[in-house]
Amino acid sequence: MLEGLRTAAAGMKAQQFKLDAVSNDLANANTTGYKRLRVGFSDLLYEQGGRPTISNEAQLGTGSRAVQGGRTFEQGNLTRTDKPTDVALQGPGFMKVKLADGRDALTRDGNFHIDSSRRLVTSFGGMLNPSITVPEGTTESDISIARDGTVAAKGQALGRIQLVNVRSPQNLESVGDNAFTTNARSGNAVAAPATTTLEQGTLEASNTDMAQAMTDMIEAQRTYQLTSKAIQTADQMMEIANGVKR
């Protein structure tokens, strides 16, 4: 009976993880360039049945656990903004930025603006890497961004937005603010494919599928409730057994 309680508790913990992931996806349904989380499940160790079963060859499972499979980097819908400093990535890849703490990072959030130092920065304050500075007297309407990332203003080239990609994007580490850092599992950043381009005056929407997210949430809630009911039933059976013993 105690084994059953531990199994059910493991299942509830796994479903809670799934609910947390779905909740995060729904909360970021309107976040520019957001990529939804991938969560799966795997079964835990099995044990020989022993005395409670008919045969010693019977195996009893010990529950399941949630396995986070990174993120789904499929293309989000493009939304026209007509703001010159907005860009959307089309195709696989990322833009190189430097976070406020100095770390190199990658992002697909192309919601740029000019900061107080006349530099192009992301919505969360991340600076393009290498940085691009807009001359005094230049307004956002003077800025043009080519499909290969070249930034110019009034016919003068200001720099280029670096487009890169990694071997395994789903293993990138999320550090918040729509940014990711590389690690040994994701691989280092290399030049993005030639097919990856930028679209000026456009932003990439979140790739969260609202209908699928709601379905996943309901499924996880129902499974959580059923597992909770199993624990309540087991507790009642133990109470009955204790009453008979007395």
From TrEMBL:
GO terms for biological process: bacterial-type flagellum-dependent swarming motility. Residues 200-242 form the Flagellar basal-body/hook protein C-terminal domain. Residues 88-153 form the Flagellar hook protein FlgE/F/G-like D1 domain. It comes from the Bacteria. Residues 5-35 form the Flagellar basal body rod protein N-terminal domain. It is found in: Bacterial flagellum basal body. Belongs to the flagella basal body rod proteins family. This is Flagellar hook-basal body protein. It comes from Solirubrobacter phytolaccae.
